[in-house]
Amino acid sequence: MKFGVVIFPGSNCDRDMIDALKNDLHQEVITLWHKDKDLSMFTKEDCIVLPGGFSFGDYLRCGAIARFSPMMQSVIEFANNGGKVLGICNGFQILCESGLLSGVLLRNGNMQFVCKNIFLTNENSKEKKVLKIPVAHGEGRYFANENILNDLQKNNQILYRYCNSEGLCAVDYSPNGSINNIAGICNKQRNVFGMMPHPERACSTLLGNTDGKQIFSDLFSIN
């Protein structure tokens, strides 16, 4: 399995993602510049990653400008043809802006940037676990209307929810006030994934936390 990591002006988590995929998960990685278009080296079994950061300085709206990058036009086509796409933090925002995922990411409920470890439950795994994963965002409050939320629930598209260390989901345990404590979702076809927490920052024993490996295992069956 190959991973392509897209780099936008303002990306600041691309190196973290590349390092985690290469050195901790032992995967092949190809870097992709936002002005390029060629994804011919990837198949449906591979994955394109949109990393975190502040693409184009978050001007206008988080992810709104990156959505129109030449590479994103190819990523949209790749996803629509069944290819796997993962968006982390700003990447999640870009996926929502591009229409590959439903809903929007709004300013955090406390109107402040949040950077800390939080707890997640993996909603769609055979064995539910509580994972400790870092977050770092100012616009991470997931919101969607009632129809979208009902569809997400009905189709098991909610992948991760914020919780406490015991796995209890309640609004007090969300770092941003996301509706229904939603931290990550996928599309109905289950080939496009987005989440605000940063699993790539929790893959190394040197950092004292490898819970992020469970997320890559859940999504792509790699350890």
Give a brief outline of the structure.
By secondary structure, this protein is of the alpha/beta class. Helices cover 22% and strands 26% of the residues. The chain has a single domain, classed as Class I glutamine amidotransferase (GATase) domain (Rossmann fold).
Fold and architecture overview:
22% of the residues lie in helices and 26% in strands. The protein is built from five helices and eleven strands; from the N terminus they run βαββαβαββββαβββα. The chain is globular, with a radius of gyration of 16 Å. With 223 residues, it is an alpha/beta fold. The chain has helices at 14-24, 70-80, 90-98, 146-154, 212-220; strands at residues 2-7, 28-33, 47-50, 84-88, 104-106, 114-122, 130-137, 141-143, 158-163, 182-186, 192-195. The strands form two sheets. The chain has a nine-stranded mixed beta sheet, sandwiched between helices. It has a two-stranded antiparallel ribbon with strand order 5-8. The mean pLDDT is 96. The longest helix has 11 residues, at 14-24. Strand 10 (182-186) and strand 11 form a beta hairpin. The protein starts with a strand and ends with a helix. The chain has a single domain (2-220), classed as 3-Layer(aba) Sandwich (Rossmann fold), CATH 3.40.50.
